[in-house]
Specification:
The structure holds three protein chains of three kinds. Chain A has 13 helices and two strands, in the order αββαααααααααααα. By secondary structure, chain A is mainly α. Chain A has one domain: MetI-like (MetI-like fold), CATH 1.10.3720. A two-stranded antiparallel sheet of chain A has the order 1-2. In chain B, strands 1, 2, 3, 6, 7, 8, 9 and 10 form an eight-stranded mixed β-sheet that branches. Chain B has a two-stranded antiparallel ribbon with strand order 4-5. In chain B, strand 4 and strand 5 form a beta hairpin. Chain B is built from 20 helices and ten strands. Chain B is globular, with a radius of gyration of 23 Å. Chain B has two domains: about 190 residues, D-Maltodextrin-Binding Protein, domain 2 (3-Layer(aba) Sandwich); about 220 residues, 3-Layer(aba) Sandwich (D-Maltodextrin-Binding Protein, domain 2), CATH 3.40.190.10. By secondary structure, chain C is mainly α. Chain C has two domains: about 55 residues, no CATH class; about 170 residues, MetI-like (MetI-like fold). Helices cover about 75% and strands about 0% of the residues of chain C. In chain C, helix 4 packs parallel to helix 7, helix 4 runs antiparallel to helix 9 and helix 7 packs across helix 9. Chain C is globular, with a radius of gyration of 23 Å. In chain C, about 50% of the residues are buried. Classes of the chains: A mainly alpha, B alpha/beta, C mainly alpha.
Chain lengths: ~290, ~450, ~280
């Protein structure tokens, strides 16, 4: 029962956020759209000219574009799958009575605080390096040929690094959701003779639906623009095997300094991101309203 | 001369010194060993130039390049001195983005004529010097004398590729993690493409013909890439496609490579007993050739330059004069020993008997640098300058994209033919987009 | 009535949980250990875990090369500043959305979140040019502004989901008592909202602290935070695992410690209203 008074007050209160974000979106976006129609290379000043859709047609017909699109989806999907499944598993484990639960939780939560650049550097040099890395040493001492992660499975390596950073986040949310599950409900189900699996499917999972939705939403926003991890580890390669859209736009903007091409790429990425956003709204609409 | 002008002069001199005393130079540089040493020796500069303070921005090479290029191209004026490569210097000089170092060129004490000719010419546009070299390098073969003796081989001073390939295969013993040859494989125009472009020159290949048509569909490139991929498969370390300079340096220093063809500056690292397990066993030779009259060695230098429009040109010139002078070399020699002075910029250094004694690699370095010719890099005529790069603004992007294809070929993800075909296509696309051939 | 759990089961579960926990934490532990090794020990094969010659020379070297305190302070200022500024702007908006929702509230929220999906590099040059023209390059204020705007959608959304959990009846009651809008916020809402605001604050400090694209590209020296500090240790000429580890440890330690100490508050807000 909002009165007109409170409604206009509400508008007033939302105004700063909305106006600021709108400006933050529209000014760069406007300039980016404008640049995307220019032949504009930072290294060749004074040559700017209107080129119509040339930048778009070059970006979209770039053989790397399709790879980047696939890689972006694989990266987001892969990390989501690992963190959600892993997160639920960890949450179930941590929800059990165990010794030193607090300390284990501190250990598990830690990767979330690490800068992406740092975690990429650490993984690349100290773990995945095929000669000096720890994983190579483990493989050799077990009598295997060390896997050259960044060259033979580049995208998977990036997914592992990113998933490591986001697993704590998923775990924490799942754990909180799990802990709020009514103990009596669980016990009642146990009394009824429900096994672990059916208890999990019929009671635990539905209860966690909202938590899972939230994890998907937040992680997707950040995962669409994963960048530092790729730059530090594989530089998008070998070939274009670990290039995602963000990295492709980066290569245009800061390697080729082709601002026109990068702007076109940026706009394409925005459009794609909004398609994803629409899907997410649908998802949220169903799960978060309830 | 009236009292008024004298007074005016005095006042302006005062004002100038007033400004000078508050002057802080912001210097962007790479996080390489020689630059870090320079950073640590800053106090010597400050003592000699009271009133000038120095603030360092030390960044990893790729980040540095992005930051200074964005800054100079948008004329943002965040840096007073920039560390740039010999690739950027002529391009930026032509654009009018750099202040010419006329004072240095004219200064007899600085002695610009002492700078090594190939490097000086690479930094000069229309007779004006636009950047001063801090250190210079070419590439050469570094090899393990002990492993060569064991295999009964003898490295000539000027080996051929055939000899190198045979020797590499003979030395390789994967059971003891000894790999015959370590070469760059990590994608990047300054990483694997530096090595491969220089090597391709010795195989008679070139990036573009006289009409700027990409040449990856020609047999010379196929020979180059075939040779490289096969050799690395037989005699290279695992994971070679992600090895750049650093990774190979670590491999060589820990005794895992029989040969390593890379930058001449690495010589002082691999012969330093503090860092290298094989310091006393390293020999040097010129980069190999294929009997076509060109060797596969490159030419690079890191240089200091002043962005045009800077308000602190005078102080900045003082700093550059300090950092690239003969006195600086003496200063480093005095504090850290002759083997650690930044190499490859001055003829006088190579005539210095003490340096020759301390640095076993001195002669080979000088010969390598002097045999590189950025004006005529390949066997066939080319429309561009640059040995291991093409001095056009588009090259960073194209070079890196081609480098990714070749890196994928080395990793075995695509065949040599596929990699060359993709390289040809993408280069054609980018060149078309950039509007080549230009009249 | 607590469930009975056999000690044996508890032991087994504990063993599994501890093993996994240590595995997850291991990369960080290894980095910290490596930072105390000499460069030789750092790449030794087989690796040495604890019995090496402990040294702090890497930290001394890092400190002599860069002004850690300055970078650290810049990180503190920009993460705290941007979060506080963001909260000031976001609290009224989230309040309005939670208590006077309209049909379009959800759309506005989703639109806000979607502004986060644009690849930042696409907007770099426009922002860079604007910053150059208004003199915000390499200033703390500039960074605070950008980071505020980047994280604002998340802040609004977190607060919104949290505020929504506050029962409306309490507000109704307050209104009945004749409380004005201002009083309603100060005396009724704020106390109930403090835990949510606290966790939003914490999460955003972490996000801002770790932001590595804008902070790296819009600063040079005076306002450069720890992300720039790290950029001078990654891939140098030569392999320096120990120094890299020392710099990494210095960059992540403050936020890691803050995170650990405040994890209870953090978790509370992280649920985004996902838990009833």
């Amino acid at each position: 029962m909002a009165t007109t008074h409170t409604r206009s007050a509400a508008r007033l209160m939302m105004a700063p956020s909305v106006i600021l974000l709108f400006a933050w979106m529209i000014v760069p976006l406007g300039m980016t759209i404008y640049f995307s129609f220019l032949r504009y290379n930072l290294l060749m000043p004074g040559m700017e000219e209107f080129t119509g859709f040339l930048n778009y047609s070059f970006f979209l017909s770039d053989p790397a574009f399709f790879d980047a699109l696939t890689n972006t989806l694989l990266l987001v999907g892969g990390v989501l799958a690992i963190t959600i499944i892993g997160g639920i598993a960890f949450a179930l484990l941590l929800d059990q009575p165990i010794f030193g639960q607090g300390i284990v939780r501190i250990l598990v939560i830690a990767p979330f605080f690490v800068m992406p650049t740092v975690s990429a550097l650490v993984w690349k040099n100290m773990f995945m390096n095929p000669v000096n890395g720890l994983l190579a040493w483990i493989a050799r001492s077990l009598g295997f040929q060390p896997v050259d992660f960044l060259a033979s499975v580049p995208l998977l390596s990036v997914i592992i690094i990113v998933a490591w950073q986001w697993l704590p986040f998923a775990t924490l949310i799942m754990l909180t959701a799990l802990q709020s599950l009514d103990e009596e409900q669980k016990e009642a189900a146990e009394m009824d003779g429900a096994g672990f699996v059916s208890r999990f499917i019929y009671i635990v999972l539905p209860h966690m639906a909202r938590a899972i939705t939230v994890v998907i939403l937040i992680e997707t926003i950040f995962l669409l623009s994963v960048f530092a991890e790729i730059l530090v580890t594989t530089n998008g390669g070998p070939g274009t095997q670990s290039t995602n859209l963000t990295y492709l736009v980066y290569a245009q903007a800061l390697l080729q300094f082709d601002i026109g091409g990068a702007s076109a790429g940026g706009i394409v990425a925005v459009i794609l991101a909004n398609i994803v956003a629409i899907f997410l709204v649908r998802l949220i609409g169903k799960n978060l309203e309830a | 001369m009236t009292l008024k002008t004298i007074l005016l002069g005095a006042v302006s001199a005062l004002a100038l010194s007033g400004i000078a005393s508050a002057e802080t130079l912001t210097i962007a540089t790479v996080n390489n060993g020689d630059m870090i040493r320079m950073q640590k020796l800053t106090d010597d500069f400050k003592a000699k130039n009271p009133g000038i303070d120095v603030q360092w921005v030390t960044l990893e090479e790729n980040v540095l390049r992005q930051r200074v290029t964005t800054d100079v191209a948008t004329k943002s004026g965040q840096y007073d001195i920039m560390t740039i490569g010999i690739y950027e210097a002529p391009i930026w000089g032509k654009q009018g983005w750099l202040a010419p170092l006329d004072k240095l060129s004219a200064d007899a004490r600085y002695d610009a004529n002492d700078l090594l000719p190939p490097i000086r010419s690479g930094l000069t546009v229309n007779g004006k010097l636009y950047a001063a070299p801090f250190y210079g390098e070419s590439s050469m073969v570094m090899y393990r004398k002990d492993l060569f003796d064991k295999a009964g081989l003898k490295m000539p001073d000027a080996p051929t590729w055939t000899f190198i390939a045979d020797a590499a295969r003979k030395i390789t013993d994967k059971s003891t993690e000894t790999y015959g040859i370590c070469l760059r494989g990590k994608a990047g125009w300054g990483e694997n493409m530096a090595f491969l472009t220089a090597t391709a020159n010795s195989f008679g290949a070139r990036w573009f013909d006289e009409n700027w048509k990409p040449q990856f569909d020609q047999p010379e490139w196929k020979n180059t890439l075939d040779f490289y991929v096969k050799l690395m498969k037989d005699a290279g370390p695992p994971g070679a496609s992600s090895n750049g300079f650093n990774e190979n340096l670590a491999l060589f220093q820990t005794g895992k490579c029989g040969m390593w063809i890379d930058a001449t500056v690495a010589a002082s690292f691999v012969t330093n007993p503090k860092e290298s397990k094989v310091a006393d066993k390293v020999g040097f030779a010129l980069a190999p050739d294929n009997g076509l009259g060109k060797r596969g060695n490159w030419l690079w230098s890191w240089n200091l330059a002043i962005p045009a429009g800077s308000k602190k040109v005078e102080a900045a010139e003082k700093f550059i004069a300090w950092a690239t002078s003969k006195d600086y070399l003496n200063l480093v020699a005095e504090k850290e020993g002759w083997a650690n002075v930044p190499p490859g910029t001055r003829t006088s250094l190579y005539q210095n008997a003490e340096y020759q004694k301390a640095a076993s690699f001195a002669k080979m370095t000088l010969d390598s640098i002097n045999s590189a010719d950025p004006k005529k890099p390949s066997v066939k005529p080319v429309p561009y300058e640059g040995v291991q790069y093409v001095a056009i603004p588009e090259f960073q992007g194209i070079g890196t994209a081609v480098g990714q294809q070749f890196s994928a070929a080395l990793a075995g993800q695509v065949t040599v033919d596929q990699a060359l075909q993709s390289a040809q296509q993408l280069t054609e696309r980018e060149m078309k987009k950039a509007g080549y051939p230009k009249k | 009535m607590a469930r009975k759990v056999s000690t044996r089961r508890k032991l087994v579960m504990s063993a599994i949980a501890w093993t996994l926990g240590i595995l997850i934490f291991f990369p960080i532990l290894w980095t910290v250990l490596t930072s105390f090794k000499s460069e030789g020990d750092a790449i030794a094969s087989p690796p040495v875990f604890l019995f090496f010659h402990w040294t702090t020379e890497n930290y001394a070297e890092v400190q002599s090369r860069s002004d850690y305190v300055l970078h650290f302070w810049n990180s503190v200022v920009m993460s705290l500043g941007s979060t506080l500024l963001g909260l000031v702007i976001a609290i009224p908006a989230a309040w309005a959305m939670a208590f006077s929702p309209t049909r379009r509230t959800k759309d506005v929220l989703m639109w806000m979140l979607s502004t986060k999906m644009m690849p930042p590099v696409g907007a770099l040059i426009p922002i860079y040019l604007i910053f150059r023209d208004v003199g915000l390059l390499d200033t703390r204020i500039g960074l605070v502004v950008v980071l505020t705007l980047i994280n604002l959608p998340i802040i609004v959304w977190m607060l919104y989901t949290y505020f929504k959990e506050i029962p409306g009846e309490i507000l109704e009651a307050a209104r009945m008592d004749g409380a004005s809008l201002a009083k309603e916020i100060v005396y009724v809402l704020t106390p109930m909202a403090i835990p949510g605001i606290a966790s939003t604050l914490l999460l955003n400090i972490i996000l801002a602290w770790n932001e590595a694209f804008w902070t790296l590209n819009l600063t040079t020296s005076k306002a450069a935070p720890l992300t720039t500090f790290i950029a001078s240790y990654s891939s140098p000429e030569g392999l320096f695992y120990a120094k890299l580890s020392a710099a990494s440890t210095m960059a992540i330690a403050p936020i890691l410690i803050l995170g650990w100490f405040s994890q209870k508050q953090l978790v509370r807000g992280l649920t985004f209203g996902a838990v009833k």
